[in-house]
Amino acid sequence: MQARLKDAERLADRASTSLDEAERFAEAFEPTKMEASLEEARKVLLEKDIDLYPEAQMHIDRYKELAAKVPAVKAEREKRDLVKRLDEARDAIVPRSHATTHAMGKIVPAAPTKESCDRLENAAKDLKSAIDSSQDVFAKDSDFAAWARGEKAKSDKALELVPKCRRGLAFLDGPVASSSKGLELQKVAVKEKDPAARARVLSEARTELSACAREGKAFDADKTTQAIAFVMTKGKPQTPAQVIAGCEKALKKADADLKKATDAAKKAAAPKKPPKKKK
Predict the structure, then answer these.
(1) What is the distance between the alpha carbons of residues 261 and 268, in angstroms, rounded to a whole number?
(2) Which band of pLDDT confidence, cut at 50, 70 and 90, is reported for residue 217?
């Protein structure tokens, strides 16, 4: 009997230890660990000899009291976890939102640059990624969901601007650049004294101006670019239609000058007739 009493005391100590742990985990809002400690206590309290311990019922009552708290501990833990997730989501989204707003403000439709297009695309994609990674918490907080939808709309709008920015950049890098090269080559040709050399330069100028007139038509037909007066390297801003008109006008002059230079080069290269002998 004495041995059983000692065993009962040992079991009671184990149960008390497990219940103390469960209580600490409850205060720390750790429901999983709390349930594990309660399970250990339950197993001990089911041992046959525990009934020999004078305060066994007190341990059983304490177990029941702690077990009843588990749902509340779980609910509070879920609440705290949600608050933490919401804070983490906001911390990820807010700076990316500011970066996107800043990048959108740097976009100048009439004078887009590769840097501004790249900055906007990267910022908008980063914002979208941060929002997408927080989708699972949207349904758990209506206020956050409404705010996140607004941020999603911002990222969508920014991403819509990217191809427009790159389209404008393509116009500047394509037809406008060809126009500048062609006009500059025409100026170089005027200074060439050798007809053959002048013809070669004018041929290059014609190639550039022809490309400008041909490729520019696609931009004039595109609603994204047709109404924009793009900033030129020199002179006033021009729409695609105005750039095309300028290239076509310059092309006509280049064709006429090229014909003259080619004829002059042929004449200069033709063998000279020997002078007629005097009778």
Answers:
(1) 10
(2) very high
